[in-house]
Amino acid sequence: MHALYITHPQVRIDPAVPVPQWGLSERGAERSREAGRLPWALALRHIVCSAETKAIAETSGAEIEIVEEMHENDRSSTGFLTPPEFEKAADWFFAHPQESFRGWERAIDAQARIVNAVRAILDRHDTQRPIAFVGHGGVGTLLKCHIEGRRISRGEDQPPGGGNLFRFSIADFSLAAASPACDWTAMETWQG
Predict the structure, then answer these.
(1) Which burial class, exposed, middle or buried, applies to 36 when counting CB atoms under 10 A from its CB (0-12, 13-18, 19+)?
(2) How many angstroms separate the CA atoms of 26 and 171, rounded?
């Protein structure tokens, strides 16, 4: 059996609103609706997500479970960063996983948190029920690095824009063993 990790698509950036409260942009919402009509999405029976508005998933018949530990890496110490500033900060975050960028949660700590959360859920999950973890790009990349046995690197990050997924084997916690294998792929184009 396999699981999916799906990142939220494009968000509506608003410097006046705390980042965890940003919702999806019109394009992000459209992409979510497109993906939600695909057979793989309709087959989901268990969706696990963070409490952030943009991470909440809805699909026909699926149980939605909110798990606090699924949140993005904590970046509250810096507040809003413009997109160019954020990209530089994210580059630094991935390049120095054992250090904190101006008070951010360290990459190694965020990775341990997301890996432990996913493993705890899978330990009690009925593998006959298709499952997806819907969350954030940063911790998704950290999870993917762990699953693939690779060092933390932004080179493993999803393509720009978010709304991508990867598939991994529940049995041995690997991408290679998932059949068919699936690396970062736009959620609305994946055929499952």
Answers:
(1) middle
(2) 37
- Strand bridging mode 2-7 / 46-49: unpaired
Q: Please state the pTM of the whole predicted model.
A: 0.93
Chain center to CA of 48: 10
Plot region of 173 (φ>0 → left; ψ -120 to 50 → alpha; else → beta): left
Q: CB 183: neighbour CB atoms within 10 A?
A: 14
Cα(35)–Cα(29) distance, integer angstroms: 10
Residue closest to 143 by CA, chosen among 157, 132, 126: 157
Sheet hosting strand 131-135, strand order edge to edge: 63-66, 46-49, 131-135, 2-7, 164-169, 182-186
Give per-residue pLDDT as tens, 95-145: 999 999 999 999 999 999 999 999 999 999 999 999 999 999 999 999 999
